[in-house]
Design goal:
This protein is α+β, with helices and mostly antiparallel strands and 606 residues long. The protein has a domain of 114 residues: Uridine Diphospho-n-acetylenolpyruvylglucosamine Reductase, domain 2. Helix content is 34%, strand content 15%. It contains 18 helices and 20 strands. The strands form 5 sheets. The protein has a 7-stranded antiparallel beta sheet, with helices on both faces. A 5-stranded antiparallel beta sheet has the order 7-8-12-10-11. A 4-stranded mixed beta sheet has the order 3-4-6-5, covered by helices on one side. Helix 1 crosses helix 18, helix 10 runs antiparallel to helix 15 and helix 11 crosses helix 14. The longest helix is centred in the N-terminal third of the chain and has 22 residues. The chain starts with a strand and ends in an 18-residue tail after the last helix. The N terminus is likely disordered.
């Protein structure tokens, strides 16, 4: 889609042709039953007393798929055009200047140690002692996601644990006053460096790591000294459910709660609803909003973009806005909720979110193997094109199935490229969809289906799918894994899968993959033990991105851009679109304090 933004006839590309889901993170790749290395299990998720409008409801079986994609696209185009026009009036001048981050960020100031110390002193007068940490262990634990494959970028200087919106307001006002960078953080399971602090030439303690990076050497956490940024960790004290509106299929939550905890609470209260976006166990709502996360349920229930109604956001000057009401639809201006979803913490800090819930319906899970990866990918494409009512269509290659078998889990699978499918609906609807699926599988040379007979079997089968990352890590002792994703239109998915598998084989790498095949979202997990293997792995990533973009897809379907994929963004969106994104950033965050160096390059950082 294109939108004409100015009389100068500059045209920007608002997105690639819809490729399933277009934005961040899978935010987490934890596994059920296994704690994240940086998790703080001693801090329970507090569930306050809240009012539910009812405890039981009857819902139509097919009500769960309520999409607003077309409306969202129109509203975003309108919003972008309006903001662009207003910003253009404010920043008239030679257009070539805006393409240069340095020239277009004259209000940005590099933080200094003196300003940092003064700001911390004021913070200590505002916040109780336990809400602020300068301890190195805390800084290290929140400096780098254990799942990110790239080197750590820098240490923050302080960790803050706000209790609610007012604490965030106080923190942001001080950061803005002293030009202190702020990094919003929830689960800290980012894959593309969204939560990494930057280093600055003005900070003497950063000099050694900057020099080492300049020589092309690897950076470790031991190389880093406390920096000048604040991490605002919402997972400690902002992890509550505020209210359930089950008659309206909505829930209001804080950003530090995980989607697992939301669904556990609904089940405990016998409310027959669930929140459908499922990146992986452990993902928290704040990060899921920041990345526009999705997961296995996106085929039927959509991404975060389709499942968030309203946000409470603290802006850079400390002001607080609500992006819209709880109404399911509104034509009262552009939908600002969509502006913040996928913005990766660069425009503001979300402190509350109103989410969409969907009815719990009967489910059945099935698995089928195929002789080749092309056969499996073609079957996934046909299931989508022929409108079979599946909730999930997951593709695992033969290497991934082999690793899952080696990991164990109670079920041993035939080591072939396989589709893991989840059916959802009434028993009659499931029976009809199963028969249609069997025919499509047979047409594409698939083997006989293994079906779950009850909920426990379905859970065990799906557990195999969810344990993929751990299976890869354990398969090669001492290895690390580059986890990356791209997304293409579903019709192009078979071509992407076949070419990427051939590339991994040519490079001699261990690189299984799994995919949300229903919407063209492809994940590669590239194992490496030496620096040379890591370089080859990133070569595979670069070619995979180029291949996806050539197929009218995107460099990331759900992991987000962060620092890891900034270099691919202009080729996908064009310099005009990047310029508009930068100007929106300047309008909302003129000093550039929110998560600098992520999504687009900005400000005086190294």
């Amino acid at each position: 889609m294109q939108a004409i933004l100015r009389p100068s006839s500059r045209v920007v590309k608002t997105s690639s042709r819809r490729a399933g889901q277009v934005r961040w993170a899978s935010n987490s790749h934890n596994n059920a039953g296994r704690a994240h290395p940086l998790a703080r299990p001693s801090i329970p998720i507090r569930r306050p007393t809240f009012t539910s409008t009812t405890t039981t409801s009857t819902f139509a079986a097919r009500n769960s798929k309520q999409r607003v994609t077309a409306l969202t696209t129109v509203l975003l185009a309108t919003l972008t055009g309006a903001l662009s026009y207003l910003i253009g009036l404010k920043t008239q001048g030679p257009t070539d200047q805006s393409a240069d981050p340095a020239s277009s960020s004259s209000s940005y100031k590099e933080p200094t140690r003196r300003a940092f110390d003064a700001a911390v002193k004021e913070l200590q007068a505002l916040l109780p002692e336990h809400l602020l940490s300068l301890d190195r262990d805390s800084l290290v634990a929140r400096s780098h996601s254990d799942w990110a494959s790239h080197d750590p970028s820098g240490l923050p200087g302080a960790i803050l644990f706000p209790r609610g919106t007012q604490d965030v307001v106080n923190i942001v006002k001080l950061a803005n006053k002293y030009s202190i960078p702020i990094i919003p953080m929830a689960a800290n399971t980012s894959l593309e460096g969204h939560t990494g602090a930057l280093t600055y030439k003005s900070n003497p303690s950063d000099a050694a790591s900057i020099a080492k990076r300049g020589r092309g050497e690897c950076i470790t956490l031991d190389d880093l000294e406390p920096g000048l940024a604040w991490v605002v960790d919402v997972s400690e004290n902002m992890n509550e459910i505020i209210k359930i509106h089950d008659h309206d299929l909505q829930i209001v939550v804080q950003p530090g709660i995980s989607y697992d905890a939301i669904n556990e609470t609904l089940a405990e209260k016998n409310i027959p609803l669930f929140f459908p976006v499922d990146p992986a166990p452990g993902a928290m709502i704040g990060g899921m909003i920041g990345t526009g996360a999705s997961g296995t349920n996106a085929v039927r229930h959509g991404t975060m973009r389709e499942n968030v109604y309203n946000l409470t956001v603290v802006l850079a000057d400390g002001s607080v806005i609500k992006t819209r009401s709880r109404a399911k639809k509104s034509s009262a201006g552009p939908n600002l909720t969509q502006l913040f979803i996928g913005s990766e913490g660069t425009l503001g800090i979300v402190t509350e979110a109103t989410l969409r819930l969907v009815p719990k319906l009967p489910q059945r899970v099935g698995v089928s193997g195929f002789p080749t990866i092309e056969d499996a990918a073609n079957a996934a494409r046909d299931l989508v094109q022929q409108g079979v009512g599946l909730a999930c269509i997951e593709l695992l290659d033969d290497v991934m199935v082999k690793m899952i078998n080696a990991k164990g889990g109670g079920i041993t699978w035939e080591e072939k490229p396989s589709l893991f499918l989840k059916f959802e609906g009434t028993q009659a609807q499931i029976a009809e969809d199963v028969e249609r699926t069997k025919k499509i599988v047979r047409t594409n040379n698939g083997s006989k289906f293994t079906f779950s007979r009850n909920d426990k079997e379905a859970e065990n089968i799906w557990y195999s799918r969810k344990m993929g990352l751990y299976a890869v890590i354990d398969y090669v002792p001492g290895s690390k894994v580059i986890v990356t994703d791209v997304c293409v239109p579903p019709s192009q998915f078979p071509a992407l899968v076949a070419a990427t598998k051939a590339d991994i084989s040519t490079q001699g790498l261990i690189g299984p993959f799994l995919s949300h095949a229903g919407d063209g979202n492809f994940h590669a997990l590239l194992s490496w033990t030496t620096q040379e293997e890591k370089v080859r792995g990133y070569g595979v990533v670069a070619r995979m991105v180029e291949r996806a973009q050539a197929l009218d897809g995107t460099c990331t379907g759900e992991h987000g851009v962060g620092m890891g994929k900034i270099k691919y963004l202009e080729a996908e969106l064009g310099s005009g679109t990047i310029d508009i994104m930068r100007k929106i950033k300047h309008l909302l965050d003129p000093k550039g304090i929110f998560n600098p160096g992520k999504l687009i390059k900005e400000g005086p950082c190294c």
